[in-house]
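User: Batch of two.

Assistant: Item 1 of 2:
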Amino acid sequence: MKKYLSHYRALVSLGTPLVIGQIGVVLQNFADTLMIGHHTTVELAAASLVSNIFILGLLMAMGFALCLTPLIGKAHGQGDVESIGMTVRNGIVVNTMAAIVLMTAYTVLYFFLDKLGQPAELLPYVRPYYIINLVSIPFVCWVNALKQLFDATTDTKTPMWVLLGGNALNIVGNWILIYGHCGMPEMGITGAGLSTLTARVVMFVAIVLCFAFSNRHSAERKAFGKSRVSKDGIRSLITLGAPISLQMGMESGAWSLCSIIVGWIGTNALAGHQIMLTISQLFFQFYYALASAVAIRVSLFHGQHDYIAIRRTAWAGCHLNFMIAILVSIPVIIFREQMGFLFTSSPQVAAEVAGAIVPLIVYQFSDGLQCTFSNAMRGLAYVRPTMLVAFISYFVVSLPVAYVLGITLHGGLVGVWFSFPFGLTIAGALYYHYYHRRLLQLEKAKE
């Protein structure tokens, strides 16, 4: 294990701020779910529906931000500041375009919300919450794009503080607006939406100010100021970002479609599903943050053509994610009967959560595996196969299994969640296969 020690240290050092920042995002979701759930169960179910609809689009848009990491990381490894400035400028344009496309699509979808087959009692709560989330899309896209500049140049602490500050603001805003404190009216789920919108605007302003006044990034800032938008640069970012976007969209789409399947089971199952998604997102953010550190390190070593370091970095990230899987699973499986009551006072919803905890634990190693090697592929800027892997794993495998286990065999929420281990295991194996094949090609080309 000695050959991995330096990579463990580097990944932990680089990844810890990413983990903290991502946990902050999950804590925001925890806070939203907990505060809305203790207001009313119907509002919790409505929040689940809207959140899962928007997660799909926002993750697809994030693909056009994440494609900046391998380009900026590789340029950083080569000391090419001018390329970094140009990539960031073109990246902001591309992410603005993604935001416009998303807002257009979600505006059209708004007029068909009553056609999704969800409980009619949810619609009065869904509509205002949906509109507020729609307005916040551009700010999410811009923050994601600028965050990649800091992360890919190994400055992961700055976006960490921005995310934590915004999430803290969101939690305070929830307390004030959901329940009607500090002289404000009690707004319930609409108040939660307004609080989230405000936090996202503030985070955008904060990360722009960090870029504008940071001494550490003065060279990148000057290069950004001198650069111009390039059609070729935009085209290359779209070419690189589209596969990542489709990969993340298919992953999220499978979860969102599963939410619709769960909605056919009933309101209690949908509320329990939202709680389970919140818990699983906490686990996933650990894996994803560490895997993002893998992508950053891989992109740096790719710029230096150090393929031995790339291989060791990827495996070191995999080892650390497996360790995290063990650590996070133990307390959740022990306290599975009590987990649901953190978010709701409904015994029926808590029972749904207790049952779904078991399949959640089953797929943790697979989730860590697929997350690590999909990000290693991203660090190599080798992303085209990820679309195929996501399609096979989630649409060909997970969704049909979810319908059969949850609806056809009357397995309910637990049946739907038992479909996830199948898809994630296949995804992990295929991502490793393509990553390994690409690395062999690079090593042969170097020889």
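Item 2 of 2:
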Amino acid sequence: MLDKYLPENILFFDVETVPQVADYEMLETSIKLLWDKKSTTIKPEGKTPTENYHRAGIYAEFGKIVCISAGHIIKKNNERFFRVKSFYGDNEITILKEFGALLTSFCSKNTKNICGHNIKEFDVPYVARRMVINGVPLPPIFKIAGKKPWEVNIFDTMELWKFGDHKQNTSLELLATILGIPSPKGDIDGSKVAYVYYEEKDIERIVKYCEKDVFTTAQIFLKFRGEPVINEENFVKVR
């Protein structure tokens, strides 16, 4: 299935997002009215826009990116290592520009690909939309309009696991667990990122969580290829 794609030619990444502002009442009037409309489509029904606002971060129109972690596999002396670099902070435009530059550089050849878990339905469109909103040029690999499926250099571990079955989704945590890979979830999960960002103001905790997800995704990809996973001590952070 993936025999012709070298793991060393793949950039794995994950994104962490939060609502645009800390509290519903802080929204500008025009955006607040639009969120009120959007809130009526969020299930389960019956909750107020204020009650639903903690979910605003999953929508690119109402959220923002606070961390993108990207990593790739390298080989030294027949041993594999995983190098990861994170772009994070309060300045979303800087995050997007720096990550866009990395994507453009890494994926300069058609032999290079990107990979993530649920990346096709969430991470890629979210980052691309936030780039457009913020006036940041799209990297070539994100310009997929009009391309045939086999011309898009994007792997999605959730899609790979479906094997054509589109009836349900499988979380990264569940997939890792059943494949015998240490769970990426520590003291927080995606639902707590906004609280950690706005209330605890602990961005480093979010970065650590994001980097774990990226490393786990790479391990899952190796499992799909029938190859040994990377030793956890070979996880290398790049600053």
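The chain has eight helices and six strands.
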